[in-house]
Amino acid sequence: MFYDDIRLDNELNFVKKIGTLTEHEMHVHAALEISVVLKNNVKYQLCDRDYHGKPGDVYVFRPFEPHWNLAEDSDKPVEWTMILFAPSIVRSIPEGYKLLTPFYAADKFSPLIPADSSYAQAIQEATKQAIAEGEQQLPGWRAKQYLHFIDILVTIFRYYETVQQDVLSQNKTDQGIIEVIQYMLSRFSEDIDINQMIVMSNLRKTLFFKKFKAITSLTPNEFISRLRLQAAVYLLDHTTKSITDIAFECGFHSLSYFNKQFKQYRGISPRDQRNQFKK
Fold it and tell me: A Pfam family this protein belongs to (predicted)?
């Protein structure tokens, strides 16, 4: 397994891809990913299971979730649209971070939205129009593409809300954790009191930490830190704000602590991150 250091030139990227039957290592990356299958069958492998996709299927992958895909037939290359985006792109959407819940609570949600559902069909149509905007590049095409992207995010969120409603209503433990995740997504740059989150979940402390780790693969503190660092990467790459301002804007109260956490996360300092992106 290897880390794929995908550099997003923009917060949002629609990319048409073609893949063949070639075995390769699973990869992980910091971007959020939506995969929309266009032509021929595909096999997606995650750590816990394999998925066999067909044209029209939509897959949702959370950041740092190991996965890979390949064509199921060597004579029929798979074609798909890969939508990659930075979590920070939703900051201007009302309740935008709430729309990211399916990506971060993926343990409780299958990554597959089947082709025969109206949700997958709506995502396919919005993706098709977004790709056309990128190819034609008429005046205002980025704004139109962004609107289609919002439609896709809302559709994914509504799908998970609808499909998982019965499951979550039967399991109040998971429902409490989902509410906590949504709260953290919308307020990660603020001071978050973990004890308050435990109260919000209606769980005992030990069970709260156990369930949170099971759903997100991270501890609550790691989850908050990851969100802050992902936001910092974007601000370093795409703004001229000072490193100090970025650290505080993302919720870090100490520049030295921010530098330490960033280097552990990316392997380089914030300054080197900015310099590398400029090159």
Answer: HTH_18
Which residue's structure tokens are 């503190």?
221
Q: How many domains does the chain have?
A: 2
Q: Taking the model in full, what pTM does it have?
A: 0.73
CA 31/CA 11 separation, integer angstroms:
9
Q: CA 106 → CA 35, 125, 178, 249, distances in Å?
A: 15, 24, 10, 27
Q: Which ranges constitute the DSSP H helices of the chain? A: 101-104, 118-136, 141-163, 165-170, 172-187, 194-201, 205-216, 220-238, 243-249, 255-266, 270-278
Select, from the ranges 40-44, 80-84, 91-95, the one with the highest average predicted confidence (pLDDT): 80-84
Of the residues 163, 197, 213, the one at which a domain ends = 163
CA distances from 102 to 32, 77, 111, 162, 215 (A): 11, 29, 9, 12, 11
Q: Which whole-number Å values give the CA distances from 171 to 161, 168, 211, in the listed order?
A: 14, 5, 12
Boundary residue ending a domain (163, 178, 199): 163
Q: Are 90 and 188 in contact (CB under 8 A)?
A: no
| Cβ 225 vs Cβ 182: under 8 Å | no
Q: Which H/E stretch holds residue 69?
A: strand 67-71
Instruction: Give the residue among 57, 51, 5 at the shortest CA–CA distance from 31.
Output: 5
Mean pLDDT estimate for the chain: 84
Residues 212 and 279 in one domain: yes
**Residue span of the structural domain in which 15 resides:** 2-163
